Amino acid sequence: MATITVTKGHNAPTGFVTGDTVTPGTLNAAQTPVVAISNIVDADLSASAGITAGKLASTLDLTGKTVTLPVSSVTTASIAAAQVTAAKLDGAQTGSAPIYGARAWVSFDGLAAVSPAIGGTYARAVNIVTVDTTTPHGLLAGHVVRLDFTSGGVVDGTFVVSSAPTTTQFLVTHSGTGTASGNVSLPRRNILSSGNVAHVAYLTAGYYAVNFTAAMPDASYAVTLGGRMRTGFVYNDPAQTQHAFYLTSADAAGALEDFTPINCSVFR
User: Which terminal residue of the chain has fewer beta carbons within 10 Å of its beta carbon, N or C?
Assistant: First the structure.
């Protein structure tokens, strides 16, 4: 509890003595009592007590103290540019070279399809195909999608999404023309874990398109690849874009082959 010490009082000049009762009347202006309160603990403060910033010293010495800030108070705006250096990270980082992080990464199963499969219906007018899916498709303009048309006579293929008006509808430009409609499926591979990757389209055996959740600033990013492989991964045409990149997996003879896991990380 707090300790109250009164150094002046009504019994001038000696002040209070043992047995005196301290009342408002005895603490008069003429005696100019000085009251010092020390050893204040949490229990001495009421729940409604307000200690404003103006009542604190302009400089607080927190040497030897541990200060814990709520995560919500540490925002991007609170961190000055270029203030997080290698020396401030755990481990053996040294030097003045800048530090970069992965902008996207994914580990996926090249053998396993997403279950349940994504499908729906389509309608082609001239060369524009509108697809309505039974579940949210997760596609954005610029994403790469494989469409297997299971009825209606339209040729299957790989397409770039031109627009996605709703979460269950998107449009692509088809190489064929004319009116047609029917059912369609969107083959994808199962993602084991990822960051900033929306989905992996299965284009054909050993050939995939990885679509970003948030687009890269441009197409000049670096992709590192790995996994359980025999020969490795190579990029295929068309070239990578801000929204997606393509990769292939092959066996020892160079033939395209699905396997798992396939790991990718993107740096920019």
Answer: N
